[in-house]
């Protein structure tokens, strides 16, 4: 094969390949055109008027206040137990159920002030003092140590005497509180003491330590002994009284001179008694 024949053959082959490629492209383009148009249509719609829909947000429009767990009421007996030295007063609070009353009052936002006597204060009492009290008196004794409001150390001077306690009344249960400098003096009419320390204090409850048991007049006031009525003295018969005052004259067993009375009794020398009618005696005279 000559050189010219080889060049001619290559040229014919290139023309054939070009012609084949062009024919295939023209044959396929009409079928693909609609598919490409439909696929690109959503991206080429700038004139759409429908707003875009967004998923709901998890963040509320109005924020709820943060949830706060309700605080439990202050447990007075636990505070006293933790402080130490108040076991007798704790036992009284529980046995009289006053501790439950305190818990209920604090639960409804009532404020209280408690004077807590130490164990030494109860030891200073006469033996058998607490055992001699009735259940009602024990309740009143404990309530006498509680004020129905919160009082800080700086505000005791603003109180008016007698100070009201949770006991019955201020007449039988008076409590006087005075302030001298930094000392808070407490007087019951029987006991005088002072606040020696602060056991616990917040905006609702104050517990103060006292070194003496507050003894109220309504329970521990000395009572006068009842006077016994004098026994009636025996009445001696008068010699000048008339024998008619008594139905029967007294009889004397001893022998004596004869005595005749107007009621019809006759005493003889030998002691024999003879009943004589009064009418008969008066007729004889």
Automatic annotation (TrEMBL):
Gene3D superfamilies: FAS1 domain (2.30.180.10)
Family recorded in the similarity comment: Belongs to the fasciclin-like AGP family.
PANTHER family xrefs: FASCICLIN-LIKE ARABINOGALACTAN PROTEIN, FASCICLIN-LIKE ARABINOGALACTAN PROTEIN 12
GO cellular component term, pick one: plasma membrane
Mode of membrane association: Lipid-anchor; GPI-anchor
Taxon lineage: Eukaryota, Viridiplantae, Streptophyta, Embryophyta, Tracheophyta
One BP annotation, GO: plant-type secondary cell wall biogenesis
Biological role: May be a cell surface adhesion protein.
Region (Disordered): 33-64
PROSITE patterns, per database record: FAS1 (PS50213)
Name listed for the protein in its UniProt record: FAS1 domain containing protein
Compositionally biased residues, Polar residues: 33-51
Signal peptide boundaries: 1-27
Compartments reported by the entry: Cell membrane
Native species: Parasponia andersonii (Sponia andersonii)
InterPro entries noted in UniProt: FAS1_dom_sf, FAS1_domain, FLA_A
Domain spans labelled FAS1: 73-214
Keywords assigned by UniProt, alphabetized: Cell membrane, Glycoprotein, GPI-anchor, Lipoprotein, Membrane, Proteoglycan, Signal
